[in-house]
Design goal:
This protein is mostly helical. It has helices at about 15-25, 30-45, 70-75, 145-150, 155-160, 170-180, 190-200, 205-220, 235-250, 255-270, 275, 280-290, 290-305, 355-365, 370-410, 410-415, 425-435, 435-445, 475-490, 500-505, 515-525, 530-535; strands spanning about 45-50, 325-330, 340-345, 355, 450, 455, 465, 475.
């Protein structure tokens, strides 16, 4: 084998630790960022929350926390929804640096430069407001989640009713077991035989005895409130509710017509659920009797029943969306004047961090000590804290830049609503800001913007375009809004079909095929014309 030397030139991408952290922080949501900050505060002794106002470090930003002028503050406080943000002193920070926040050029490593002197980034970063999980004030400690957790559960509600029943010890135990076997919707998913065999094992005699007690307990469970609890399937759940209504109707002596409709609804629920789901009135009339009008009235009655009896008892976690960006109108608007909008970072989601100056000073004073390994490790942690603060600032600066570009391109939406949305793709914003499309995708994922029309994810403002007769493009978001508007104004007796909606869009100059209309309608969770007519 002949040995030799060769020279090869190649290119490869190397991500420094600080660049990897910057990318990871950029794609985190507000909640995930808060958790990341808390974890870093626990792990890094050089990082702390700033309790006092201090000068913000400068990372090439030409404007940082510039106080809002009196005139701007007055104009911002005019609209009702801006009142929540009127006390904020955060202004628009502009970044004219040609290097993007995710650039790795000339980026230092975690090892630092070997100095422990206080750096500009050792100061605090953030706003006076601590990051919180909601927009409630200090006096609103008992939020919706806490109130929901204090509500009575379905099992507790049923156990309390069971106390009023005079049962033997065996039947009472069987009833308690069935109550605890219910799922969150109030259904009994396992059969009585499976429950009995799970307790008795291979003892067939004991299993039969348990099935007997469970059968008695199931009948008692069906008599408890809410009606329909303990059902094994949807059909049984609806029948239990209808029987309870029929018994109440007969006891109160209501008209026979009402009782006839309830009885017909019971027979309909005994049929396969597919017929009811399709609103197959003709087949249901043939199988269940009754007139066409009675069948339609019975179907409407069934539609008003509760398919999940335990739903109102479920401890549902209330997830409150906290916007990362606030868009507020500024200046006076009037006839012939174009409204102006200001984009602000929400101070409630911006953590206020700084390097612990006492610990940094101690480390600086002990430079060159006997324990070089410990000193190097602490220096590493100090540099890590500095870069963490910087990367958080870069994260919010990038979010602000992208949001400002979105608002500039979607001004019509902020003035007239979603019908005025224009087509927009990630590449347009990426080219304008000099960033990569993947960066824009990270920024617009799980980040929210508060607007005069509500709070939306940043991705909401991006959409494909549909061709128009004039040669331009119409945003798919605007087309969806137009379809929703057409359907909301349709006649209940003659709902619009997808073909008719497609023709109406063509009259507006928008080329939209029937299949596209159907896709947009399904995305809006709107039923087809046949079901809309039966439901109204």
């Amino acid at each position: 084998m002949k040995q030799g030397l060769s020279l090869r030139v190649s290119q490869h991408l190397a991500l420094t630790p600080q660049l990897q952290q910057s990318i990871r922080l950029l794609q985190l949501s507000t909640l995930e960022l808060s958790q990341e900050v808390e974890q870093m505060l626990d792990e890094n002794p050089f990082l702390e929350r700033a309790q006092e106002s201090a000068e913000r470090e400068d990372f090439g930003l030409e404007q940082a926390d510039t106080p809002v002028s009196a005139g701007d503050r007055e104009s911002e406080s005019a609209p009702d929804f801006v009142a929540n943000y009127a006390d904020s002193t955060v202004a628009v920070s502009q970044n004219n640096d040609e290097t993007t926040p995710l650039s790795a050029d000339e980026g230092p490593s975690w090892d630092g430069d070997g100095t422990t002197e206080m750096q500009p980034d050792d100061g605090e970063w953030g706003t006076d407001a601590k990051a919180r999980a909601n927009n409630l004030g200090d006096g609103d400690e008992a939020d919706a989640t806490e109130l929901a957790r204090s509500r009575e559960s379905l099992q507790s509600h049923l156990h309390r009713q069971a106390l009023s029943l005079r049962l033997s010890e065996a039947d009472a135990g069987a009833l308690r077991f069935l109550i605890e076997s219910l799922n969150d919707d109030g259904y009994l998913e396992e059969s009585l035989q499976d429950l009995a065999h799970g307790l008795a094992g291979d003892d067939a005699e004991q299993a039969d005895d348990l099935v007997h007690h469970f059968t008695v307990a199931l009948g008692l469970l069906h008599s408890l409130e809410p009606a329909g609890v303990g059902a094994r399937d949807l059909g049984e759940c609806l029948r239990l509710q209808l029987r309870a209504r029929l018994d109440a109707t007969q006891a109160s002596g209501q008209p026979q017509e009402r009782q006839a409709v309830l009885a017909l609804a019971l027979r309909i629920c005994a049929q396969p659920m597919e017929l009811l789901a399709r609103r197959d009135v003709k087949t249901l009339v043939q199988r269940c009797g009754g007139t066409d009008a009675q069948t339609r009235e019975a179907i409407a009655l069934i539609a008003r029943l509760e398919p999940k009896p335990g739903r109102r008892f479920v401890d549902v976690e209330r997830n409150i969306v906290v916007p990362d960006v606030l868009v507020v109108p500024v200046g006076k608007t009037g006839a012939g004047l174009t409204p102006q909008f200001r984009v602000l970072l929400n101070p409630d989601v911006m953590p206020k961090l700084r390097v612990h100056d006492i610990y940094a000073s101690v480390l600086r004073n002990h430079r060159g000590g006997s324990d070089a390994a410990s000193y190097a490790g602490l220096q590493q942690r100090l540099q890590e804290a500095r870069w963490f603060i910087k990367n958080i600032q870069q994260r919010f600066d990038t979010i602000l830049r992208v949001s400002t570009a979105i608002v500039e391109r979607q001004k019509s939406f902020f003035t007239h609503g979603e019908l005025a949305m224009r087509p927009l793709v990630l590449r347009e914003i990426a080219d304008e800001l000099g960033l990569h499309e993947s960066t824009i995708s990270r920024v617009t994922t799980a980040k929210y913007m508060a607007t005069p029309f509500g709070t939306f994810e940043l991705k909401y403002f991006f959409g494909s375009g549909l061709g128009t007769e004039s040669g331009g493009n119409a945003s798919s978001t605007a087309v969806r809004a137009l379809i929703k508007q057409f359907i909301s104004a349709e006649s209940p007796k003659k709902p619009l079909s997808d073909n008719q909606i497609s023709d109406m869009l063509k009259e507006q100059g928008i080329e939209c095929a029937r299949r596209t209309v159907a896709k947009y309608r399904e995305g809006l969770k709107i039923a087809p014309a046949s079901l809309r007519k039966a439901l109204q």
